Automatic annotation (TrEMBL):
Family the UniProt entry places it in: Belongs to the sigma-70 factor family. ECF subfamily.
Parts of the chain that traverse the membrane: none
Pfam families: Sigma70_r2 (PF04542), Sigma70_r4_2 (PF08281)
The protein's name: RNA polymerase sigma factor
Record-annotated RNA polymerase sigma factor 70 region 4 type domain positions: 133-185
Keyword Transcription regulation: yes
Keywords: DNA-binding, Sigma factor, Transcription, Transcription regulation
InterPro entries attached to this UniProt entry: RNA_pol_sigma-70-like, RNA_pol_sigma-70_dom, RNA_pol_sigma70_ECF_CS, RNA_pol_sigma70_r2, RNA_pol_sigma70_r4_t2, RNA_pol_sigma_r2, RNA_pol_sigma_r3/r4-like, WH-like_DNA-bd_sf
GO MF annotations, alphabetized: DNA binding; sigma factor activity
Annotated RNA polymerase sigma-70 region domain residues: 38-105
Signal peptide: none
Length: 197
């Protein structure tokens, strides 16, 4: 039983009674009519399934497209009778949906939820991390040149003469910047500790 089907301005004969397995065999032979017949037959169901699973039509279309790509890849090796094609097709589509749902749940968060750390010394590590955070915050509040001097000397471990050269100033000017920066840092960190007690 055949009917005429119009595709993008041309006509093509399409067999209505072909089984999924027969269409797969034709797809494996790069038969364009079989590809179009399979898409026409399965696309609406795949999109409905994926839309219900994901709640997003655009994502559902992406899932359907990936499912069809897998059909094309599987067609040459498909063995009729080993598995029901529709069952396999739905499993593929569902797996793709679950992959997308997992990725949604795995979106990075700014802060991880608090969990107790049972390691020995965990409390000391937390205190050190908190001190480091306070130091970073205090450092960010320094004037730019003082911050630059501290970073070059303590974090980059440059000598006074190398740091002064990088900054384009004399060693005396660098030492003056360092002195003022250390005073401000001590003052700021002292205030933070007072506020915590």
């Amino acid at each position: 039983m055949c009917r005429q089907k119009v595709w993008r301005g041309g006509t093509r004969r399409q067999s209505v009674g072909e089984t999924d397995e027969r269409l797969l065999a034709l797809i494996a032979q790069n038969n364009a009519a079989a590809v179009e017949a399979m898409v026409e037959r399965k696309l609406p169901r795949l999109i409905r399934l994926a839309t219900r699973m994901l709640g997003d039509r655009g994502e559902a279309e992406d899932v359907a497209q990936e499912t069809f790509l897998r059909i094309w890849r599987a067609a040459p090796g498909w063995r009729a009778g080993e598995a029901k094609f529709d069952t396999w097709l739905h499993r593929v589509a569902l797996n793709l949906c679950y992959d997308r749902l997992r990725r949604r749940r795995e979106t990075p968060v700014a802060e991880l939820p608090d969990r107790p750390d049972e390691r020995p010394g965990a409390e000391a590590d937390m205190l050190a991390a908190d001190d480091q955070h306070q130091l970073q915050r205090a450092l960010a509040e320094l004037p730019e040149r003082q911050r630059e001097a501290i970073v070059l000397q303590y974090y980059q471990e440059l000598s006074n003469s190398d740091a002064a050269e990088v900054m384009g100033i004399s060693i005396e000017a660098l030492e003056s910047l360092l002195s003022r920066a250390r005073r401000q840092l001590r003052s700021r960190l002292g205030r933070d500790r007072d506020e915590m007690t």
